């Protein structure tokens, strides 16, 4: 005996759909176009996370009332898995998910090498005008088309984290001025230049690991930041060489604060618009510069 699902009152139908598992919703939606529209209508608009690894495309869903922080992006989420497919099938799968879930934003994590499959998925999401919430990339070790494609496709993400780009300098990527992220982090970036760091002034927080700068390079960055900070609120960089904060702020009319960070002195600098910037060595060989709000 069949169950007259489509004849149920709106609120009864809504209650049923809300209590279905994600797998059950997708199975039900495949039965007909009418049922698919019905399931979509009674499914909350939400976000998905996409994981690309070992030739597989995994998608997880979580709703707006479920918190999603940065740390969670680098591990498998506790939210509901809604599909698991071979990577070549992802376009059809993602299109289907877009119809059902009315996806608000996408987070993508690439757990594989080579990363071409993850980049293709990212580019497809961008082509669908989906909001890219966060992108997590592993290690890149070649100055090739894939690295440039990855960076260009990620430029509108709210957050971008890359474990490392292990290439020999220089790397002439000239599009960092297009990045407008809340947070941009590269764990290993010895190739990055002063000009490239300055081009990131439209990001709010920038974190670069193992940069090959000396004290005069940092002084130049500070000077430029004081003149035109853009949107940048915080810049953190770690180094291979030893330097002191006094070497960095020499000649910048910096005022030493009475405060300190674990014994490391803090200096205050004032920008052209009167906004103050503290600069300090956060830990050994890590400098932190922030803009006061």
What count of domains describes the coordinates? 1
Number of beta-strand segments: 13
State mean pLDDT (0 to 100 scale): 82
Structural class: alpha/beta
Order of helices and strands: HHHEEEHEHEHEEHEHEHEEEE
Instruction: Specify the biggest β-sheet.
Output: 13 strands, mixed
Distance between the termini: 66 Å
Helical proportion?
25-40%
Low-pLDDT sequence parts? 63-79
Shape: elongated
Strand content: 25-35%
User: Helix count, per DSSP?
Assistant: 9
Radius of gyration: 24 Å
Strand order across the biggest sheet? 3-2-1-4-5-6-7-8-9-13-12-11-10
Organism: Caenorhabditis tropicalis
Domain F-box: 2-48
InterPro entries: F-box_dom (IPR001810)
Protein name: F-box domain-containing protein
Care to describe what's here?
A 13-stranded mixed β-sheet has the order 3-2-1-4-5-6-7-8-9-13-12-11-10. By secondary structure, it is of the alpha/beta class. It has helices spanning 10-18, 22-29, 33-41, 90-101, 116-127, 145-154, 194-199, 215-227, 245-249, and strands at residues 47-53, 56-62, 80-86, 105-110, 131-140, 159-165, 183-186, 205-211, 234-239, 255-261, 264-270, 276-283, 286-290. It has one domain (5-249). Helix 2 packs antiparallel against helix 3 (33-41) and helix 5 packs parallel to helix 6.
Task: Give a concise summary.
The protein contains nine helices and 13 strands.
Task: Record keyword descriptors for this entry.
single chain, 293 residues, alpha/beta, elongated, F-box domain-containing protein, F-box_dom
